[in-house]
User: Which sequence fits this backbone?
């Protein structure tokens, strides 16, 4: 649906947009906040922040001075990408030197 068609279908005769419960819930469901994301990933909100800042996961969008949200589709794609290429326990931290 293009913007002209959307505007025509979602506005009344005075040109005011009609906001329905379905439209609001549809738009909000595309975003996820830090606390909910931390719960889904079984980690802390500070870890979510740290991972985002370091580039380990998608960055959030800022909608205000104290509110950041992640795009749910980007998080789903990131998780699927992790499933495909990072199985196991991560990179080896230290190498054992073979002494003979």
Assistant:
């Amino acid at each position: 649906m293009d913007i002209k068609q959307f505007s025509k279908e979602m506005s009344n005769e005075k040109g005011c947009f009609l906001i329905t419960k379905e439209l609001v819930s549809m738009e909000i469901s595309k975003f996820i906040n830090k606390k909910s994301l931390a719960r889904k990933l079984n980690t802390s909100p500070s870890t979510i922040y740290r991972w985002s800042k370091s580039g380990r996961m998608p960055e959030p969008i800022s909608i205000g001075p104290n509110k950041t949200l992640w795009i749910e589709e980007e998080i789903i794609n990131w998780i699927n990408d992790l499933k495909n290429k990072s199985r196991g326990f991560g990179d080896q931290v230290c190498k054992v030197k073979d002494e003979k």
